[in-house]
Amino acid sequence: MTTASRAVQESKREEILAAAIRCFAERGYEGTSTREIAREAGAKPPLLFYHFGSKGDLYLAAVLYQLERLSEALTTALAGVDDDLERLRTFVQVYYDHFTVHEPGLSVCLRELRVLPRALGDQIADTHGRVATSVLQRIVADGIVHGIFRPFDPWACAYAVTGILQGFMRLRASTQERLGPHAPVQQVLDVYCAGLVAAPAADRPPYST
Predict the structure, then answer these.
(1) CA atoms of 166 and 182, how far apart (whole Å)
(2) Is it the case that residue 58 has pLDDT exceeding 80?
(3) Architecture of the domain spanning 1-53
(4) Rounded to two decimals, what is the model's pTM?
């Protein structure tokens, strides 16, 4: 295959992937057919299977692509930020913005994990854990070591923060519009994240793990 032919093939693959992201975001895994994706991409159905093998493989590629963009955004935003509390705030803002502004279809895809074929759902959950949850765990764990955060379980904290943010993302569009783009993030920062901050030793209430 010539260089030009490979470039054409790669371009068509990217078009199919972009079309899949749009279709899955609108109608979900079960509600989207490969024929619809092919029509959206301006391609013949066999070409989808040539590039991705199956509908499940295409769904996985679409979600992983969006999660990798999240990973890149978090890495860029957190680079050079040393303060643990500021790292936590940065994570919350970037995570929420990614799902609601940059890759809004990703929230739809993650909501489907329990109805997907198990192997597919596990791969997506594992990747989300690697690119997002584990990053937040490290932020919280570092903050505990440095005495910035109270000694809660870092995994539980990461699960709570992402869970609250995902809850806001699942609200109806009309409710999200009423709240506005800043209220959910501010609430997580002002209520949950503020509760993680360790009080000065003299003011700290008793706490046992």
Answers:
(1) 14
(2) yes
(3) Orthogonal Bundle (1.10)
(4) 0.87
Terminal Cα-to-Cα distance of the chain (whole angstroms)? 62
Residue corresponding to tokens 């700290």: 204
Q: What is the pLDDT of residue 200?
A: 63
Q: What is the pLDDT of residue 53?
A: 92
- The residue type found at 137 is Q
**Topology annotation, domain 62-209:** Tetracycline Repressor; domain 2 (1.10.357)
Instruction: Please give the pLDDT value at position 199.
Output: 72
By residue count, the chain amounts to: 209
Of 103, 2, 7, 119, the closest CA to residue 62 belongs to: 103
**CA 192 vs CA 3, 34, 39, 160, 205: distances in Å:** 53, 42, 45, 9, 17
Q: Which of 131, 155, 130, 133 is nearest to 144 (CA)?
A: 155
